């Protein structure tokens, strides 16, 4: 009888509907990749591949018009798909020079729907990613804006500036 208890517990746990899989999107100890990047976290700096500037005010980074990150595929995403979320701020000083900005995104070989930021302030771009995009364990997300402030617009600042970014994440669809 005691030998049946572990099997019974396994069956009960595996039959739970609507399990929250987000708890499994933790850092991969072998690759140091995570599915959730905070741009100001020095531990995540290696995942910021292109288009990012230095950490500012210990909370965010400027991004150029084209930027890319490497993410860990979250648990369950090869079967369920995921949601890609980019959170940041579209500053007044950029909006005053560019007007609305359109963001395009690509996850590996999959183009995601574009998003237009109409007015300055905080924004969140979110797009569903199909399960087929997670054939590889490591994922490269590439973003582009259609407008930015060119380098040297401000005296002594040779950076191209498009958006302020705080987080980029992949979460398994429920």
Walkthrough of the structure:
The chain is mostly beta strands and 174 residues long. It has a single domain, classed as Sandwich (Jelly Rolls), CATH 2.60.120. Helices cover 13% and strands 44% of the residues. It contains three helices and nine strands; from the N terminus they run αβββαβαβββββ. Strands 1, 2, 3, 4, 5, 6, 7, 8 and 9 form a nine-stranded antiparallel beta sheet that branches. The longest helix has 11 residues. It is globular, with a radius of gyration of 19 Å. The two termini are 36 Å apart.
List the helices and strands and how they pair.
Blueprint: H1 4-14, E1 36-38, E2 48-56, E3 60-72, H2 77-80, E4 82-90, H3 92-98, E5 101-107, E6 110-117, E7 121-129, E8 138-145, E9 163-172
Observed structural traits:
174 residues; mainly beta; 9-stranded antiparallel sheet; globular
CATH topology category name: Jelly Rolls
> What is the H-and-E element order?
HEEEHEHEEEEE
* CATH class annotation: Mainly Beta
The gross shape turns out to be globular
CATH superfamily: Galactose-binding domain-like
Report the strand count. 9
Cα-atom radius of gyration: 19 Å
Q: Identify low-pLDDT runs.
A: 6-13, 19-28
In total, how many domains does the architecture comprise? 1
């Amino acid at each position: 009888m005691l030998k049946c208890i572990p099997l019974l517990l396994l069956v009960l746990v595996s039959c739970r509907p609507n399990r929250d899989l987000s708890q499994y999107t933790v850092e991969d100890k072998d690759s140091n990749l995570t599915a959730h990047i905070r741009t100001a976290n020095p531990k995540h700096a290696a995942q910021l591949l292109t288009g990012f500037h230095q950490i500012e005010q210990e909370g965010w980074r400027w991004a150029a018009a084209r930027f890319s990150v490497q993410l860990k595929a979250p648990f369950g995403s090869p079967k369920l798909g995921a949601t890609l979320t980019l959170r940041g701020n579209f500053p007044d000083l950029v909006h005053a020079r560019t007007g609305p900005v359109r963001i395009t995104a690509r996850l590996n070989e999959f183009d995601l729907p574009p998003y237009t930021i109409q007015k300055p302030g905080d924004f969140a771009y979110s797009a569903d990613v199909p399960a087929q995009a997670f054939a590889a364990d490591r994922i490269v997300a590439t973003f582009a804006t259609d407008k930015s402030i060119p380098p040297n617009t401000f005296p002594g600042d040779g950076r191209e500036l498009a958006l302020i970014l705080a987080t980029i994440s992949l979460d398994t669809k429920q």
